[in-house]
Each structure stands twice: as C-alpha cells, then as structure tokens.
C-alpha cells in the first residue's frame, strides 16, 4: 500500500513531473489504497493539503478566477498557490449551456485567445432570427431585440469544449486542477470562518460502510475559498444559508429555469454555421415562461434546447416531453431532421437577476459565477458575466493575499470583491434589465410588452424594481386547480425519442452501490402530499427519470429514486413543493459526461 504521505502536493509534483496535476492525482486516488480491506484498522487518515486559494468548480467562472490570479502573479512577481477541484470526471464533463459567447470578459482575461490554435472559439454568429411558435405547426418571424443580436460580434460554441481549453490554459500558468473530486463539506475554523472544503470519500457502500475499494477524501484548506459550483451548488447553498447572505443583501428569492439540450450532427447541405435562432411561444402555455434556441456550431453540429421557467403552475407539465414537442415543430424540425443526435443533457439556470443576488462574500471566501446568479436573461447569456465575476474575485483575492499588511496566516477579507463588482460593467448590465424577467409573471403577452418597454424605452432607468415574490416551488397548483394534462405524442425515433434513449446519450453514470446523493428529509411526504395533491410532480419536472412511483406488494404507490440516472440538473432541489429533496454530490467523477455541450 502506498503510504499516505505520498498523496501530497509535493509528491504529486515530484513523482509525476510533466503530467497534468489532474492526471497524477487520479492515479494516486485509484492506486494509493487499493490494498485496503475497508476495516477501521486499515483505513488511512484523511490527507490535508493547504493552498492560498481554493476554487470549487472548473467552469468558466472558477477557471477565470484561477487564471486571473496567476496572471497577476506573473505581472507582480508574486507566488499565490491556486487549486481547482471539479466534480466531473474531467474539466467540461458537467458543463452544459446553449452558448452564444460574448467575449467581452475573455478579451480582458486572455487577450491573445484568438491567436491560440487550440482555442475552440471559431464560429462567428452571422445570422439572427426570432420566431414566435404560434401553434404546433405555424410560426411567425419577429424582429430580434437589440440585446439578443449576435451577428458579427458573438461566437457559437460548445461551453464544455471552452472549459476544457480554459483548464489547459490555467494549468499552463501553474494552477493545480483536480478533476473527479467533489466538494462534499465546507470546513470551518474555530471562529466560524470558511477555511476550505472536504472532498468525498470513495468506496462507501449503500449501507454506509466502507467497501474494499475505500479511499478517504482530502481536506483542502485555503485562506480564500471561491465557490464556483454553478447554479444551485450544494456548498454555495449551505454558505448562503449559514451566513444569511441573501438577507444581508436584501435579495429576493432566486428564480430558476430548467434547460434541456441536445447536440446533433446534420448533413453538410443542412448546416448553416453561425446561424442563431431563438423562439417563444409553443409548446409553453401563455402563463408559462419558456423559449427555445437553435445554434449552428462547427463540424456540422447543431445545438438546440428548450428552457422552462421553474415557476410554472401546471403540475402536469413534463419537462422532457415539452422538449420533444418543441423539436417536433416544423420550424425546429427542419434544422435537425436527417441528422444524428449526439448528446442529451439538462441543467437548471438562475434567472433572478440583480434583485436575487446575495451578498457575494463571506468570512474566508466568496461566491462567483452562477453560484451567485449573474445570468442576463433578456440576452440569454451568462458566461461573460460569470467570467467577469471570477476575474474580479481573483483580483480581490490576489490583492488581499499580497497586501503589505496582511497576516501570514488565516482568512482574508473579500469584501472588496463585491465593491469592485458593483462598480463594473457587469452590475450596470444587470441593472438595466432587472425588470424584464419579473414581468413575465403576468403572462406571455404582458411580459413581452414590458420587455419591449424595457428594451427600447426605459433601459433600466425606471425608479422601480419588480419583485419575484415567492420561491418557484410555491407556484405549483394542486390538481384540483390545474388545467387538463397535455397530450404528449409517442416518439417517432427520428427527431423525438423516449427517455432511456436520451439518457444513454448523456453518458451519465453512477455507482449503484453508494449512498444516494439525493437526500429526502421526510420519505413519507411524497405519498401523503405530492402524489395525491400534485400528481407526483417529481416524476415530471425531472428530465432524467430519477423519480418514479412503483406499486408495492400491498398495492400502494411508493416513490422509488433512481439516483444513478441523475444528470445533476438540480431541478428537484428547486421545484419540490414540500422542499423535501436536497441535492448533494455523489462520488467524484460520476454523473453526465458531456463533450460537446
């Protein structure tokens, strides 16, 4: 058995010089404790590693923070150690976004990105379209609002590919990236400040006991912990609650949407690289916020997806089936028919905007990117704002750690990060559109009128700010007040598919013999309340078939959780009417395996 001391940063660097740190660490994880029999006497102690900055999440925001710190180090001749952990099996494996990238933040972060032959940002948008899908078979072209126009300035990309490229750039600067390691628990100091994160143990059975493959997680301690987990991150939500960050900022409840996406490869004659299409209307009802996108990428690929606001009221809505209805519309179908579906996936996104942003700093760290919620909803863009927040957090961390009067140990004050962000173009951009998304609470047509007034006339200068009101889960109506269930057609196997087929294309995988990462606080509540009152909405809002009701030997319906199907979208953490489900991380390296999303 390899001794514990070998699993240290120095050992990784010395023994695997020339290899990416993530590769070296994965080798250590898989082999260091292979001889352990899982008994208490042979289980090794948890390793501890210390850094100046720990970043949780290797998405655009987290990697931007890490890169910014290291480029600042180069400019100032300083040394700040930076570690990034990522729960996906590799950087980009859990990144999903229907992405038309605005490069404003990237231009600041890596000014030479266009000269990098490895950079996957190649396809410049050359056509904008806005469609109103007025019925299942008819559509009307609308003017594209100025904020949504991408022609000649934005790029159609796969964000998972962009994240992998950014990861390589970060490692070249000296950032240590450990993919396949999920942040399980926040570590707190004696005075309550955040001093790092503990990663998951590996090899714990469903019964909670260590298996023969057991290996302990690692306690990663840092003077600054940046939480960049993306929307509804489990550690971020814990910190927001523990330090009352939403109350401290006077923020509204966050509001969310679920985005379901596929990537197709189509014939050359059908491919229109750089084409950007957005849709409103069908299949959403007039009281449901929703819309679609179709983006023609590189290599004959087309990305398309459908977004549904999770403040929907109808308990009969099945998000996966709504996506199938969207694809079947003639205006959408023509872009993909004759092609091959390559990948499927889903993810929640935060749509609350400026009024839902919590306080961004806490003792020992800060929230960056979608952990806080910087999506510009009218633009349908959030990558540039997430990257900007990461850059500014990185700058604040660097300055705090290298200031002449800073103590050599202990946490540093990250309040300057929020102050700087509020003076930046990011804050101005979100302030200008703050009242667009809340206006759709009144329905589609009033929402469009409000959005037009904001876009063309008010532009954020109005003295009022609309409120979101309640959390999304509280909008769901009971069956007694709901309209009739929609009629969903059988899949045709050409552009529409059944759920198992789609799930296979996500590449999602979880070890069946591990504790469920979907924690239910009151198991009987589903049968007592969710099923009779709401028709079991968890079986419909989940786009992966994780939740299903099965009949037991006494003829009673019992909820069964297929945790192995999970796409890590986190809709269940948002939409369950009883707030009875908490999403946490499974063993690191598990979940979906996105390559082109």
Please characterize this protein's 3D structure.
Its EC number is 1.5.5.1. Accepts electrons from ETF and reduces ubiquinone. Keywords: Electron transport, FAD, Flavoprotein, Iron, Iron-sulfur, Metal-binding, Oxidoreductase, Transport, Ubiquinone. There is one protein chain. Helix 3 runs parallel beside helix 5, helix 3 (60-76) runs parallel beside helix 10 (383-402) and helix 10 packs across helix 11 (415-422). The protein is 28% helix and 23% strand. Mean pLDDT is 92; it is low at 1-19 and 25-41. The chain has 18 helices and 24 strands.
Task: Using brief descriptors, characterize the structure shown.
597 residues; alpha+beta; eight-stranded mixed beta sheet; 24 strands; 28% helix; 23% strand; globular; iron; electron transport; FAD; iron-sulfur
Short description, anyone?
This protein is an alpha+beta fold. The model is unreliable at 1-19 and 25-41 (pLDDT under 50). Pfam families: ETFQO_UQ-bd, Fer4_ETF_QO, NAD_binding_8.
Uncertain residue segments:
1-19, 25-41
The termini sit apart by 39 Å
Helical run tally: 18
Helix/sheet category: alpha+beta
Shape: globular
Query: What does the average pLDDT come to?
Result: 92
Percent helix? 25-40%
Function: Accepts electrons from ETF and reduces ubiquinone.
Catalytic activity: a ubiquinone + reduced [electron-transfer flavoprotein] = a ubiquinol + oxidized [electron-transfer flavoprotein] + H(+)
Protein name: Electron transfer flavoprotein-ubiquinone oxidoreductase
Cofactor: [4Fe-4S] cluster; FAD
């Amino acid at each position: 058995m390899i001794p514990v001391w070998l699993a240290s940063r120095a050992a990784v660097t010395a023994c695997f010089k020339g290899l990416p740190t993530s590769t070296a660490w994965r080798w250590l994880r898989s082999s260091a404790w292979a001889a352990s029999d899982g008994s208490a006497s042979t289980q090794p102690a948890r390793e501890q590693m210390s850094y100046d900055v720990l970043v949780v999440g290797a998405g655009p925001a987290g990697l931007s923070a890490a890169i910014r710190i290291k480029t600042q180090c180069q400019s100032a001749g300083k040394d700040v150690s930076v570690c990034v952990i990522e729960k996906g099996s590799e950087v980009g494996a859990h990144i999903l976004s229907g992405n038309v990238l605005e490069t404003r933040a990237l231009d600041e972060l890596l000014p030479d990105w266009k000269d990098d032959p490895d950079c996957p940002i190649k396809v410049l948008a050359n056509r904008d379209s806005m469609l109103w899908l007025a019925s299942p078979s008819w559509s009307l072209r609308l003017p594209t609002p100025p904020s949504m126009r991408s022609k000649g300035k934005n790029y159609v990309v796969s964000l998972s590919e962009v994240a992998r490229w950014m990861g390589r750039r970060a490692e070249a600067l000296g950032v240590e990236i450990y993919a396949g390691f999920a942040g399980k628990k926040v570590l707190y100091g004696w005075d309550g400040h955040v001093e790092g994160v503990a990663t998951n143990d590996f090899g714990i059975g469903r019964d909670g006991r260590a298996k023969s493959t057991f290996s302990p997680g690692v306690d990663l301690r840092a003077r600054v912990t940046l939480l960049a987990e993306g929307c509804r991150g489990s550690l971020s939500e814990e910190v927001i609650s523990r330090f009352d960050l939403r109350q401290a900022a006077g923020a509204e409840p966050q509001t969310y949407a679920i985005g379901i996406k596929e990537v197709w490869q189509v014939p050359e004659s059908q491919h229109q690289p750089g084409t950007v299409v957005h849709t409103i209307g069908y299949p959403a009802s007039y009281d449901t916020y929703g819309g679609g996108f179709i983006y023609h990428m590189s290599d004959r690929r087309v990305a398309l997806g459908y977004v549904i606001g999770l403040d929907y009221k109808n308990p009969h809505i099945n998000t996966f089936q709504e996506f199938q209805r969207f694809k079947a519309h003639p205006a959408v179908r023509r872009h993909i028919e004759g092609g091959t579906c390559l990948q499927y996936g889903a993810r929640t996104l935060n749509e609350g905007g400026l009024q839902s942003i919590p306080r961004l700093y806490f003792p020992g760290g800060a929230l960056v990117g979608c952990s806080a919620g910087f999506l510009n909803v009218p633009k349908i863009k959030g990558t540039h704002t997430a990257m900007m927040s990461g850059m500014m957090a990185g700058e604040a961390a660097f300055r705090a750690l290298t200031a002449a009067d800073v103590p050599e140990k202990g946490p540093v004050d990250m309040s300057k990060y929020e102050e700087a962000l509020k003076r930046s173009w990011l804050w101005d951009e979100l302030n200008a559109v703050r009242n667009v998304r809340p206006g759709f609470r009144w329905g589609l047509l009033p929402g469009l009128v409000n959005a037009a007034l904001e876009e063309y006339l008010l532009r954020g200068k109005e003295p009022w700010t609309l409120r979101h009101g309640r959390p999304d889960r509280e909008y769901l109506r009971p069956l007694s007040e709901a309209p009739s269930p929609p009629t969903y057609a059988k899949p045709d196997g050409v552009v529409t598919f059944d759920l198992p087929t789609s799930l296979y294309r996500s590449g999602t995988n979880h070890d069946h013999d591990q504790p469920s990462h979907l924690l239910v606080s009151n198991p009987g509540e589903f049968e007592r309340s969710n099923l009779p009152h709401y028709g079991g909405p968890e079986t419909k809002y989940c786009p992966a078939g994780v939740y299903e009701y099965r009949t037991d030997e006494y003829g009673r319906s019992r909820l069964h959780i297929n945790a192995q199907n999970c796409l890590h979208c986190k809709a269940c953490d948002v939409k369950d009417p009883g707030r009875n489900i908490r999403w946490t991380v499974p063993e690191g390296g598990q979940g979906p395996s996105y390559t082109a999303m």
